[in-house]
Design brief:
17% strand; 8 strands; UPK3B protein; two-stranded antiparallel sheet; four-stranded antiparallel β-sheet; Uroplakin-3
């Protein structure tokens, strides 16, 4: 058949990953060749081994997924041919390598396990009936998976920025410095003002005059009869009448 499998050209999340890739579903390709009991397989092979692949004569000879490292090819996604008929009721995209559960189970059923290396890979669709292959598509172009970066290859130093970025960063840094200075100045002024008000209140209290209670002056008391004034601490002297002659 002239059909060539391909990765969908439109934007698709996870279209090609480190272990999987997406394929367009080959709708209306096998209608003239398929019967109700026929099945369609996907053949996956390393790009350099696709030319040496030989179609299996029967289902029992289908190369399994677990032999990919040794045989460099396997067959998977066994599907009834009616699923690819017109119009196709199934989704328009197939995911190759999307079954992680069958990888370690050792089953004989067709496994669509994760691809073990970046490849590149080439794929084709093969229509098989009860007596062996009936029709096949062409091989796809090489499909290279994504490579995971080694931690040692990651550059920890970011690349140099452009002059515009440097100017903007400098302006932002200067603006931050000005804002910080303004905030500190405002806080300092408030603190200084509170301290000055406290000092003024203390000084006013210190300069405030203190007046004692009013005490009336002590007026000199008249001497008792018969006393004369004497210096302080000497008491008074009584005046005796002169002795008669």
């Amino acid at each position: 058949l002239s059909y060539v499998p391909r990765v969908p050209p439109m934007a698709l999340l996870g279209k090609v990953t480190a272990t999987t890739f997406a394929l367009e579903r080959p709708c209306c390709i096998f209608d003239r060749h398929a019967n109700a009991s026929d099945t369609v397989w996907l053949v996956v092979a390393f790009a350099n081994a696709s030319t040496t692949f030989r179609n299996p004569p029967c289902r029992a000879d289908v190369p399994p997924y677990k032999q990919l490292p040794a045989t460099h090819s396997y067959m998977t996604l066994e599907t009834a041919a009616a699923a690819y008929a017109c119009p196709a009721p199934s989704p328009a995209v197939l995911r190759v390598g999307g079954d992680t559960a069958c990888k370690d189970q050792g089953r004989q059923d067709p496994c669509n396990g994760p691809l073990p290396s970046p490849g590149p890979y080439r794929v084709k669709f093969l229509l098989m009936g009860c007596h062996g292959p009936k029709a096949e598509t062409r091989w796809s172009d090489p499909i290279l998976l994504r490579r995971a970066l080694s931690p040692s290859t990651i550059d920890a130093v970011p690349p140099c920025c452009g002059s515009d970025v440097v100017v903007i960063a400098s302006l932002l840094a200067s603006l931050g410095t000005v804002l910080a200075t303004a905030v500190l100045g405002t806080l300092g002024a408030k603190v200084w003002g509170s301290l000055c008000q406290r000092d003024l209140g203390t000084s006013a209290f210190a300069r405030r005059s203190y007046r004692t209670h009013h005490i009336s002056p002590v007026l000199p008391q008249p001497l008792p009869p018969g006393c004369q004034y004497s210096p302080p601490g000497m008491g008074c002297f009584a005046l005796r009448p002169p002795a008669p002659c």
